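Predict the assembly for these two chains.
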Amino acid sequence: MTIQLHCFGESGHSYKVALALELSGLDWEPVFVDFFNGAARSPAYRESVNAMGEAPVLVDGDLRLTQSGVIQGYLSEKTGRFGGESKEEEREILRWILWDNHKFSSQLGTARFLLNFVPEDKRPAEVIRFLQGRGLAGLKVLEERLTQRDWIAGRSVTNADLTCCGYLFYPEPFGFTRADWPAIDAWLGRIEALDGWKHPYDLMPRAWPPAKS
Amino acid sequence: MTIQLHCFGESGHSYKVALALELSGLDWEPVFVDFFNGAARSPAYRESVNAMGEAPVLVDGDLRLTQSGVIQGYLSEKTGRFGGESKEEEREILRWILWDNHKFSSQLGTARFLLNFVPEDKRPAEVIRFLQGRGLAGLKVLEERLTQRDWIAGRSVTNADLTCCGYLFYPEPFGFTRADWPAIDAWLGRIEALDGWKHPYDLMPRAWPPAKS
């Protein structure tokens, strides 16, 4: 049965899962979330898709899962890929997934949202600066890690890499320029070179600009 | 061997782990992190304790773990407690741990930090309002969940509860008042009634106000 992923192109959290699905060669299809028209916050979505009001949501037969980190773990169980080779590596991967959700993708992703998908006269400049400052601290941690090794947590690509790269391929300005971060840049190049890699906008339907609802 | 937890009283993320240790009856001791004098950001700490520059860090013999969600999972493996009764419940617990780290403790914890531990003339009002707005959205999700059930993810207390309550016992003002959230209030009461429960300031040494360094 085809796996469905409720997602939209601009969602880096969705991309983490869409990329794992694609790289694994699983049979899957995107289900468009009309995010900028408020679809993920609607009562119907909260009731029947995700009470947390977020994308991505994965539906595999009777199973419905939310939170990209949970879905990544599930896909690794299903395919044996990206989940680590030992208990120690599993923990290390989860450590980076949590760090990414708390300190990295969350900060840069929100800064990107406010800078690009909010009307210019409603952009909170102080908030954007704050989020970019936290994102910068995260970029330093990641750059240091990738100066020491090719992949964040394993001998090859794992869910730690797929989570941390979630927002880093997007072209919109949000405070990250690959050329400024040589180790991150090289690592993103290694990800792009993986068999089956696709850019988020080639993997998921775009929700921006929103169609008039 | 006594388990060591690098932590400080004001850290809700440390509290999640300290509470799990205490409720499990494990032999553990806090190792004070002089956070407000910059200890967690020092080169020595980053090098020998945690490259992410954060607390908590757990040391159990040769094993050193960071990220509260990873440590919670490790303690559950060790004790058989709080980790869920099935694969499905395990995933549900991880879902709430990720949500909490991304959307809840992170927002309210940072608002509390800026409102209470930063000099009054350096508090970014717009950032605090933004974080409190996101915290409010999280409180609504949690209140709805706890209107439907006694514990977030299991038949009794699990790591999902221990993560989400991380910042909710603190007395400092940060935008949460128990009386405003009856289901959350009752759930916090159930946590307080657990055998061995202690308030964060009774479980870990306080770092505020900072001693002159």
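The domain at 3-82+198-203 of chain B is CATH 3.40.30.10 (Glutaredoxin). The CA atoms of residues 169 and 199 of chain B lie 7 Å apart.
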